Every structure is written in C-alpha cells, then in structure tokens.
Amino acid sequence: MKVALFGGTGFVGSYLTEELLNNKHKPVLLVRSGSENKITNSNECTINIGDVSNKEIIEDTIKGADAVIYNIGLIRQYPRKGITFENTHFEGAKLCIDTATELGVKRFILMSANGVKYEGTEYQSTKFLADQYLKNSTLDWTIFRPSLIYGNPKGKIEFCTQLRDDMLSLPLPAPLFFSGINIKNAGKFSMSPIHISDVAKFFVQSIDMKNTFGKIYNLGGPQSYNWIEIIDTISNASSKNKWKIPAPVEPIKLAATLLEWLPFFPITKDQLTMLLEGNTCDSSSTFDEFKIQPTEFSVESLSYLSAN
To answer: SS3 for 294?
Structure first.
C-alpha cells in the first residue's frame, strides 16, 4: 500500500518508516526543508519537501495514498520561532484530515497521547482537539494514545536517553519530584513504558485491520513503574549508581516558567505537570488483539543506554 506519513523524521517516525518498508508498503513522507538527511532509508521512500501548513504540498503527499498516518508532534514548543502545539498537533492534523476527506482517502491513523484532555496542558489539549476532530470526520480512523515511548533513539530525541544525559550524568542526586508538602509522595507517580518497536507494529498492522476502525487504543507496556523504579532501571542500564533525593516540584516549576524558552533548559512547566499526573494504562487486551508480544521495560531492552 501507498502510505502518506506526516512526521517521519523523528524518533517515532523513523521506526514507523522502517516498519512500513518491512511490510512492503510504500511510504510518502512530507519533510521540512533541511530535514531530508534525517531519513536513513530515503532511497526507498518518496520525499516531498514542505510544511504541514501548506495545503498544496499536503495534497501532493496524500493524493493516491491508501492510508494516512499523522505522527507530527512536539515535546516542547518555541512560540518565538512559530513552533507551537496548536500549529503542529491540531491545525496540521486538521488540514490533513480535511485534505484526506476531500481526496477520498478514507484510512487515517493518528498519533495521540495517553492522558490527553481538553482542560489539560497545552500539549494535552491540542492533542485532544485533534482526536475529537478526527472522531467527528467521515474517515475510517484509528487513534493510538501511547504512554512513555522508549527505545534506541538512533540519533533522535528519546526520553530515557535524555533522562540519562540531562539528569543521571550530572554530579547531583536524581530528583524524586513531589507536589505539596508530603515527602512520602516523592517519586510515586507511575508510567507504563512501551517500546518503540511495539508502537510501530501497532500502527502498521492497523492499516488494513477493519476491526480497528473508529477505535481509540491506549498503549502502554506490560507493566507500570513508578518514577523511582524508572530511575533505578535507567541507572542500571547506564551503568550508573545514582543517589536520589526528594525534590518539591513548585520551585522547579517556577524556574521552568522563567527559563523554558531556552533550548538548553531540560524541562518545561507543562512537562512537570504531566509527569506528576502519571501516565499508565492496561494494554494487555490490545497486545492480544494485535498478536504482538510486548517488550519488557528492563535493563536488557535499555541496553542502548550503555552503548550510545
């Protein structure tokens, strides 16, 4: 099948492209100018150069496709550069959904996120709006909402590698964030880490699975872990013996509010808010439905942390 992929140059997108090719699909990627070198298998793909705000180039990318995957997303936004959650998560998705509808391309798969909600952070609310817009369309849609995605970044931006570099490699204790004054809650928020290879399999398998039409899937790994357990597992995989210390989140949020616009500042206020909310889900029935064997979050599956 010919598959139009929006967001094919980042961490998740590179795995989606590879999985599409492994399953004999023909990816057509919309790539921003200057990002062409981020595609490792570009000779096997059709590459269109342009921006997701350009309807003409979106039409060229979707025209003749059998399916559309919208995977464009930001970890953080830079409004001064015009790079915002609103533009990428919602407006870009809306334009692609409208264009697919106009061109009669019925199959549309959207990358969302576990925990999205209207009255959440700007990241959560713009993802939620895209979900709702697609749900109200006439397309044969499927929405995937992953928890924390991890795996070998292959030179891209990935959570566990960033955590290792920005936190665990510093000569300081790892912070166990907590809100309020109850220190016993430090590091007790949990996540359900899911391996990137599993995520890519879900997306690509769903393309021609009619039973997934009109469904939302929350994707998490086979087990949930609290922040302390995640820090310990990443530390062990990185061959680091890391001390940990309770850290009240309010002062860090204040610093993030003032400094998050700087690219080198490691975390934003919204990221801290979402972190402390936790991000868990039970996806055992989804793994069974797709006949995918889940990858455990372990020192073995994080072995890339000691190699990179």
So the answer is: coil
